[in-house]
Each structure stands twice: as C-alpha cells, then as structure tokens.
Design a protein that fits this description.
19 helices; PCI_dom; PSMD12/CSN4; 3% strand; WH-like_DNA-bd_sf; signalosome; mainly alpha; COP9 signalosome complex subunit 4
C-alpha cells in the first residue's frame, strides 16, 4: 500500500496522467476495499494541496476517470473536507471553462453538507441554500427542468426550516460592517433562489404562477442597495412575458392589472428584449386588439420553451393573443364571420379561429355561439353585473394580499 501512495504522490508532482490512470485502473482491482478508500483519500488530499496539478488536470479524460473512481470509493470523511474542495474546483472548471452545466450540477450535488457544527462538513443554512440554487441554475441552462425543480425545492426547504428570511433583519454581531456584508450576501442568495424558482415555473409553462413570482421579486428589493435596479426591471419584464403567455382567465386578468399598474412598466421600452412588452400588456389589460406586427415583435423576444407549438397547431403566444383578441372583438361586435375574424386578428386562418372560439365558449371564457352553416360567430352579452362585482371584490382581496407580501419582503430585506 505504501508503494502505491508513494507512486500517486510522485505522479501528481510530475503531472504523470498515464501513471495515475494505471494505478487507478489495472492496479486498483488488486486492492482491498479499505486500501482503495485510503488510496482514494490520499490522491484527493495530495492533488488538492498541489499548486500545479489543478486545474490543468481537469482537461485530461484520464484524470477525470481517476477522479470519478476516487470520489466513489472514499471513507466517510476526508481530512479538511478535501473531497468537497475537489468537487467545488471541478464545478468551477466545468462551468467556466467547458460550459458543461449538467455535469457541474451533478458534481456539486455530491457535496457533503451537515448541520452539526462540530463536523468538518458543517455548512450554514444559507451556504447549503446557495449550493442547491447553483445546481438548479446549471440544470436550467440545459433545460433539465425536472432536475432543476428538485434542486430549487431543496433550497426552499432549507430557507423555511432555518428561518433565514427573518434572520436577515437581526443585527447581533459585534462587527456591524461584517454583519452588513453577511446580510448583502444573504439577500443576493435569496434573490437568486426566488429568481430560479420563478424560472422553473416558467420553464414548466406554469406562466401565471411564474408571472406572480417574477413581479413579487421585481418589487421586494426596490429599496435594497445591494440589488441592481436594472436586474429588478428584467424581473418585471419576465413577469410581463409570463402574464401575456398565461391562459385566458379571471386570474390572468388580475395579474395583468397588477403589472399594468406598476409605475416602472414604461421603463421596459428602453431594455433590449422588452421593447414591445408594455404596449402588448397594456392592450391586453384594456381589452384592445393586439396587432400582428406587435405580436411578431413580442414573439421574437421569447425563449424556446415559450415558443412551443401546442396540440392545436398554435404556438403558446399565438393562442394567448388569439384568445385575448377574441374577447376584445366580442366587445366591438355582436357577430362576425370567421373569415373576417381571421383577417381582423391577423394571426390565424378561419378554421383555427373557429376551433379556438369553440374551446373558449365551452370552457366559459367567451360568451357566444357558433353558426357552422354560415361560418358565423355570435357574441352573447353577459347577464347582470353580479359576476363583475364578485370579480372586482376578488381582485381587491388578491391585490391586498400581494401588496402585503411585498411589504413583508421589503421589511425583511432592510
């Protein structure tokens, strides 16, 4: 065993990748389980302490195989948590040099993180949260939404269990400057967690929920000096995107209203990728017809998952705008031929317009009837104002709850 450890040390010092590969493949099989663990631990501790071995060795497929072998044959603990240090180094290399985000996420997910402060693997809650947020961010880079959702859920569990949010307002440190630095880092991590959570909802096409999360995020840290206001505007832009993409419903109308009343909405016109957002959202909220050119400009800013073609042959945004325009047209006409409707909407042909109208009528989002013989859509006026009064009351309660959440988040962030 001693000869193997000496050979490993010498090979690391000389960056002899071939020799290390032989030790951890053909010679590896002749070792007992205990000897394998000891040799694996020795390799990691020695490689980490070498000033020249990493990061150059990460580019070698041979060394990456050696690392894979050693990480899977370690004792319960390695001196100075060297295995965690190695995983962090691999993560940084995979992200910054190779942009291999899924591998980076899997490597970082293997970190040993314990709650016992006496353990060498102890990690405070905010740091554990940071790890899972990084993992989720990496999975999102490669559209692995299931894996990202699992990681962000773990981060959320840590936040809830540890009371991180409430601790951000406390200041029990003897060193005030140190406490400010800690609070700023905590705010940054919480901000990334919330952003990642919203992105997961967005990626899973839960657009209405994502819109609410993005908007809450865009307002919760308005008074925090540690958060860039431009970043908050981007969150507002994403809230607009998801609100527009959401299926037509009373809840969607409330979210549109919430974002429409945001004083910063017009500022999106100056931000690349969001120039058409305020105009489209305004028309959506005020029940005005969205023109084809406006739709095309808005659609050009969307991510791939937001452009998906649905089972009816329409993209998500085409369906959303068409459903909105249907409602807008119903306030202007008592009846209209589908051929005229298709031309007026400028989005789809008459057959698709008829199918969408039929679906909206069946699910109650449009009051009307279809004359298939004449190819005519008749709109029915709503009876009474009881429903609108209830909707107004519901909107008032929802708005109050959202404003209360914002105030709570703002207090926690100060």
């Amino acid at each position: 065993m001693e000869s193997h450890t000496q050979s490993v040390t010498a090979a690391i010092q000389s960056s002899d990748y071939a020799r290390l590969s032989v030790i951890f493949t053909s010679q590896w099989q002749s070792l007992g389980q205990g000897e394998q663990r000891a040799l694996a631990s020795h390799f990691i501790k020695t490689a980490i302490s070498s000033p020249t071995f990493f990061p150059a060795a990460f580019a070698s497929p041979q060394i990456m195989e050696v690392i894979h072998t050693t990480l899977n044959h370690l004792p319960p603990s390695v001196e100075n948590a060297a295995d965690n240090i190695l995983r962090q180094k691999i993560f940084d290399y995979k992200v910054n040099e190779e942009e291999d985000y899924s591998t980076a996420a899997r490597i970082l997910s293997g970190l040993k993180m314990e709650e016992n402060e006496e353990s060498m693997y102890y990690m405070p809650p905010i740091e554990r949260c940071d790890v899972f947020v990084k993992v989720a961010e990496c999975y999102l880079e490669e559209d692995l939404t299931v894996e990202a959702e699992g990681a962000v859920s773990k981060a959320g569990t840590i936040i809830e269990a540890s009371g991180i949010m409430s601790s951000m307002t406390s200041n029990n440190s003897d060193n005030e400057n140190e406490e400010v630095v800690k609070d700023e880092r905590t705010i940054t991590i919480i901000l990334r967690y919330k952003s990642t959570h919203a992105r997961v909802l967005d990626a899973n096409r839960k657009f209405l929920q994502a819109a609410v999360k993005y908007h809450d995020l865009s307002t919760a840290y308005l008074h925090s000096s540690s958060v860039d206001k431009d970043d908050l505007l981007v969150m507002l832009g994403r809230a607009v995107t998801c609100a527009i993409l959401s299926p037509n419903s009373a809840q969607r109308q409330r979210v549109l209203g919430l974002v429409y009343k945001d004083e910063r909405l017009s500022q999106l016109d100056a931000i690349p990728g969001f120039q058409s957002h305020s105009a489209v959202l305004t028309k959506m909220y005020l029940n005005r017809i969205v023109q084809k050119r406006e739709l095309k400009q808005f659609e050009s800013s969307l991510a791939d998952h937001q452009k998906a073609i649905m089972s009816d042959g329409l993209s998500i945004v085409e369906r959303g705008v068409l459903e909105h325009n249907m409602v807008a047209v119903s306030q202007l006409y008592t009846s209209i031929y589908f051929t005229q409707l298709g031309e007026l909407l400028g989005v789809v042909d008459a057959d698709k317009a008829e199918k969408v109208a039929a679906k909206m009528i069946s699910d109650g989002s449009l009051s009307g009837s279809i004359d298939e013989v004449d190819g005519l859509l008749r709109f029915h006026p709503t009876k009474g104002n009881g429903e609108s009064a209830l909707n107004h009351w519901d909107e008032t309660i929802t708005s109050f709850c959202m404003q209360l959440n914002k105030v709570t988040d703002a207090i926690r962030a100060t």
